[in-house]
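Can you please make up a whole protein chain along with its backbone structure tokens because I've never seen that pairing?
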Amino acid sequence: MMPDLISALHLSAPEATLAVGGLVLLMLGAFMGEKSVRFISALSVGLLVAATAVAVTGPLGQAFNGAYVADPLAVYGKALIFLSSAVAIVLGDGWMRRARIAKFEYPILIVLASAGMGMMASSGDLISLYVGIELHSLALYVLAAFHRDDLKASEAGLKYFVLGALSSGLLLYGASLIYGFTGSMRFDEIAAYAAANQSTGLIFGLVFLICGLAFKVSAAPFHMWTPDVYEGAPTPVVALFATAPKVAAMVLIARTLEGAFAGSHDQWAQVLILISLISFAVGAFGGLVQKDLQRLLAYSSIANIGYALLGIAAGTTAGVQAMLVFMTLYVLDQFGFFAILLSLSRGGKPIRKIADLAGLRKDKPVTAIALTVLSLSVLGMPPLAGFWAKFYVFGAAADAGYWMVGAAGLVASVVAGFYYLRIIKLMWFDPTPEGVGPTDASPVEARTIAWASAAFSFPLVIVAIGWIDHFAGVAATGFGAG
């Protein structure tokens, strides 16, 4: 018994590191007070980097009677999740201090949310799936309303909480149906049952489960919380929402559908394709009428999640690999966008409206260049990072016979190109509005992340894409090989 427990704790060391470290940091913050904010932030970043190292170098296998799985897919997901969370802390530290809402709880909440996201990536049954989702969601509910004196932030947190409870209900109802028909919570046992029995009740449970998971990645038509939360929550918190939780949820969706329901691919692929098509339309056309930059990025994320789901819908190893490549490059572009938003302000107030970018080339030419590169990358302009991301998922979809769905995605990309090109046009060709002063000095950490992201999009991506493709291929091929 004791050797089994030690082995289980060894396998789950990344999450244990974050959980124990988060509690220690909470005690330090409570004793040291608000003066410890920067110190706690630095330790939190170090803790997340350490957890990444533990995940990458740790053993592979299963623990807790199959409820926890450490395989190459989980390792890849955790590395991307933990490093993304660390970047979100770096972005948030400076912003919180400038906004005078710096609290030591901010980095600790991200650390605890990361522990839940790591659990999602390693879920091996329906119980660990739910525990991981709720563990990370509880921290994110608080982060959404972290700026308590701001009405929009409070509204964002409340909407996210209420709609999150609804999605949890859908997910639990689906899980109960699956358990009722299969008699098991474990993914491998569910897969064995689903391969031999295609009952209607099991399919209903699967659909409800997919609906609950689709909420977590803000895929349409379960996106209703996304624009309001993106607009109201603090910008560094939105940067976190747009990256790490989406990676965790996408890995969980791949693990659940490709693992527990591999024999029901024809059924769940239809649901994913429908969600992808709706996401294309909502993300492309919804973004056309937006005036707020963060709401625009919300609709952009909805469309991009539709593209990523195409990789999973393919139901192949190449499809999972394409999804991982897409999410990695998507995260890099998103951090670049949000870092630029955090680096821009006029008269001490952040730039939030799209129209406020007019004439940016005069005040901040380097930032304008970086934003241009990132906009073209998300648009999918070759040879930038976004082009390769879409190339992989559309290729996987076409190889699986879903070339018409891929064509619909290409059409949506053309429509979405309008609002990306509008940003470029405002920066380079429109004059600065009268009576508007020059942009303020940019925070060094935001500038650094923005420029690094733009540099990776072009030309460094040409070199790095091979590495990303290789590690994503190892993760997809080794799926379930713990």
About this structure: The first strand starts at residue 61 and ends at 63. Strands lie at 61-63, 68-70, 345-346, 349-350.
